[in-house]
Amino acid sequence: MHNSSGALADIDPVSAGFTIDRDGFVSYRDSLLFLPPKERGAFRLLLNAWPKVVSKEDFSKNVWAGRMSDESLARCITQLRRTLSNLGVVAIDAFYGQGYRLAILADKVRRLSAVPAMVHSPQKSDVAKPHAALVEACIHARQLLERRSPDAFSQAEVILKNVISKAPNYMMAKLLLAQYVAERAFFDGNIQRSQIDDALGELRSVQNAEPYLQGLQSVTGYLLDCKWHFDEARVAHKQALQMSPDDDVAYYRYGYHLIYTNAGSEAVNAFRFAAQLNPFSANIATMLVRACACANMDPAEVLAQARSAYSAHPNSPWTYVILLFTLAWVDPQPELAHAARHFVEKNRYAHALTSRGVAYILARCGDHAGALEVIEKHSSIHGIHLAALTAMGMLDEAMIKVKAAAETGFGGLPYSLNAPECAAFKQHPDYPLVHEKVFSRMPKK
């Protein structure tokens, strides 16, 4: 049983600062909580039932229309706890065999009562709350970004730009659009470097309007990593973790930063903590696998981690690709190339990184013609197929592409350069020049 509060029931949710509007959205101290529909419905039940326990039957009836599984409720409560932890004034207690209860942390509420509400809310009092439909649109856009497919990226961009055109003062939409730029810069490079600078400029306006908006510092660090300003990025990531120490996404992005800066062991720790905070994220699970590889862990341990990730997320196409990728790295076999080709036939390229993963599997397992076909079909100026070219011993060809990628000044090239499957590429005589260009702005030790 998870029980974080004793009998602290002398402050009710309204007095603590929570309100529910007529559209069913929940606010804390006049600041709208950005919750997906299921989490929002569960939180409303907990607020309205306080201080009583909400049974699983009530959750199923009122939030899932009678079609709820124990896993879906556990996932929802985990995500809800993660969001509410940033507020620091409530917790959700679990009662085995009964359900869940909202706990008001009275001492923390009293401690914050002397702090002006504007510390947690937009500093501009004339900013109107966005229409419910626009909030829902942003939640949908965020879910699309998590899919990491080219089609999902494009859909999210259209949605967010539409929301901003209708609600130019809605800072969450601007934050998500900046996240879109960062995701696209890393995963497929299908943007211009100027878009990263523009997104950072927009985040400065968000900083002025809502300096405590969750994710602001983390996305800033993510964008700075994308343009290889790792020294500035480190500062932003540290601020993000200080402001939101229980934010799995902040640790996830920090883990990427650590891989970029060749700190594999620290990246493993960051992704492991992110996985503890959010065990339902396939994205975190797969990056933990890659961090273990970048940390030069024993290949058998990396493979075990890949198997664990796929076992925990069997419906995620990307965890399957990462498993095949790791198997090819550890023990290349022709059967893995066949499995990769079959995957593409069934799933196409459902993830923006699929082509680089499949190309490497084919190259590593002896199907060089197939790998070259994938590389030609999904070519990119950002050197995304470095691992495949290295596996085929085509180091001069790889260097031509890497030099072109280095000239762009942004993208996921640092990740590829630090990946263990690309280690042989570092023996190329021109590598020191590339390294100096890409890693010129490293954090001070």
From TrEMBL:
Keywords: DNA-binding. It comes from the Bacteria. Residues 6-104 form the OmpR/PhoB-type domain. PROSITE patterns: OMPR_PHOB. One of its GO terms (molecular function) is DNA binding. GO terms for biological process: phosphorelay signal transduction system; regulation of DNA-templated transcription. Signal peptide: none annotated. Gene3D superfamilies: Tetratricopeptide repeat domain, Winged helix-like DNA-binding domain superfamily/Winged helix DNA-binding domain. Residues 6-104 bind DNA. This is OmpR/PhoB-type domain-containing protein. It comes from Glaciimonas soli.
